[in-house]
Amino acid sequence: MGRPPAKELTERELQVMHAFWSRGEKPATVAEVRDDLAATGLDLAYTTVATLVRILTDKEYLIQTNEDRPFFYRPSRSYEDVSRRMLGDVVDRVFRGSREMLLVRLMEQKGLSSRERERLREILDEAEKNDIRKKNGGHSS
C-alpha cells in the first residue's frame, strides 16, 4: 500500500498554480497554461502539464469547470490563501513557530529596499492601531 498523496505543492505544481493565478478568474485549458509557462521560459511537454493539472485537481487546488473537451480549469484556492498557509508551514516547521526568527533570516539574506521598508512601516503601523483598538474594546482612542 503506497503512502497517501502529499497535500503540499511541489515546485512544478506551484509554477502551474502561478500560471492559473495570473489569469485571475478566467478558466484555462492545459494547452493555454502550457503556453503561458513556455512564455515565461518554462517549456514543459503538454503531457507533463496535463499530469500536473490532474494532480492539482486531485489535491483540490484546481477545479474542472466543464464536462466537454477541451477541459477548462480554474483555481479553487486563492494565491493569498495558499501563500499564507505555505508560509505558516515554513514558520512552524523550519523556525519552530518563531516569526521573529523568520524575519531575522529574511534580513540576513538581503536588506530591504526603501519601498519595502515603507510598506513594512505601513503594516506595522496598522498592526499597532489594531492592537490599540483591541485594548480599548474595539473603539479607537
Q: What can be said about this structure in brief?
A:
This protein has 141 residues and is mostly helical.
How would you sum up this structure, described in words?
With 141 residues, this protein is mainly α. The chain folds into 2 domains: 11-75, Arc Repressor Mutant, subunit A (Orthogonal Bundle), CATH 1.10.10.10; 87-135, no CATH class. The protein contains 6 helices and 2 strands, in the order αααββααα. Strand 1 (62-64) and strand 2 (73-75) form a beta hairpin. Helix 1 packs across helix 3 (46-58) and helix 2 (30-39) packs across helix 3.
Q: What's the Cα radius of gyration? A: 20 Å
Structural class: mainly alpha
Uncertain segments of ≥5 residues (pLDDT<50)? none
Q: Strand arrangement, largest sheet?
A: 1-2
Average pLDDT reading: 92
Strand content: under 5%
Number of helices: 6
Assigned CATH class of the largest domain = Mainly Alpha
The H-level CATH homologous superfamily of the largest domain, spelled out, is Winged helix-like DNA-binding domain superfamily/Winged helix DNA-binding domain
At the third CATH level, what is the topology name of the largest domain? Arc Repressor Mutant, subunit A
> What CATH architecture of the largest domain would you give?
Orthogonal Bundle
